[in-house]
Amino acid sequence: MRLSVSLISDAQGNPIYFVAQTEDITERKRVEEEFQRLNQALEIKVTERTKALLEAQEELVRKEKLSMLGQVAGSVGHELRNPLGVMSNAVYFLQMVLSDADETVLEYLEIIKNEIAAADRIVGDLLDSVRTKPPQRDIVYIAPLLEQTLRKCTIPPSVTIKLDLPESLPPLFVDAIQIQQVFRNLISNGIEAMPEGGSLEIWAQVGKKAETVTINVRDHGIGMSQEQLGRLFQPLFTTKARGIGLGLVVVRNLTQANEGCVHVKSEWGVGSTFAVTLPVYHVMAG
Ligand SMILES: Nc1ncnc2c1ncn2[C@@H]1O[C@H](COP(=O)(O)OP(=O)(O)OP(=O)(O)O)[C@@H](O)[C@H]1O
Ligand SMILES: [Mg+2]
């Protein structure tokens, strides 16, 4: 209720009487409150939308920068492939002709060879993460594929590789070069997870309907926390001083491009297992 009182005076200004008026303002109050509530809700919405818009704009700028950086990295990577290849051939030649050289020379040649191999993996990851080429799929036998991959990896003397493959594994239908890159990354991660050394186990099993083979890489290293597990496949996620954080992005992209999938199990302080499932070659598929 609202009460308004007016004083009525005569011509000389002497009060004659009061006029009191009451008014039911319940409805007006309700409308006013409703209006205020709507106004507040609108303000909150406008603030939220502005924030989202700003975030979207920042994300767009970030993506554009990343894509530009990706293109630069891609072309630099591409240009580095040739000199790396030449250096690798030169080291191979030197190791052949200097086989009688003293131990230090041979040791340094081995260091150069290993560093070239590490640079080659990084360049490969850089190129594969910028653009995954369509796979050139063919019949690929698992044992020679893994043996070849292991030859390209630098295995420290403190790490033992245990390769355990059943005799009768069906061949895969995949791009051999891409799948080698997948295992190069998983093997390097496994080795890097065991700075004190240990055993890295690689084994394979055929899927239920014999349409797939799962190849597992298990280390007994540092393992991962839940937080790490959640961010594992994010580009540029790394916990290593010398890491880039592209290895697992490439593992997932290349595996998926070859119609496969990757699963991870890990326990902090115990170790990790990466399981890569890939399609088997069928006469029909070829
Ligand atoms: N086998 C593993 N054991 C423990 N942590 C791992 C393992 N594999 C991956 N990680 C974690 O996931 C992160 C991302 O791995 P990823 O291979 O993508 O990048 P990176 O090894 O750090 O660098 P690079 O680009 O040189 O491979 C690692 O930094 C590490 O924290
Ligand atoms: Mg890695």
Automatic annotation (TrEMBL):
GO terms for molecular function: ATP binding; phosphorelay sensor kinase activity. Keywords: ATP-binding, Coiled coil, Kinase, Nucleotide-binding, Phosphoprotein, Transferase, Two-component regulatory system. Residues 1-37 form the PAC domain. PROSITE patterns: HIS_KIN, PAC. It catalyses: ATP + protein L-histidine = ADP + protein N-phospho-L-histidine. Its EC number is 2.7.13.3. CDD domains: HisKA. SMART domains: HATPase_c (SM00387), HisKA (SM00388). Residues 75-282 form the Histidine kinase domain. Residues 28-59 form a coiled coil. Pfam families: HATPase_c, HisKA. NCBIfam families: sensory_box. This is histidine kinase. It comes from Nitrosomonas nitrosa.
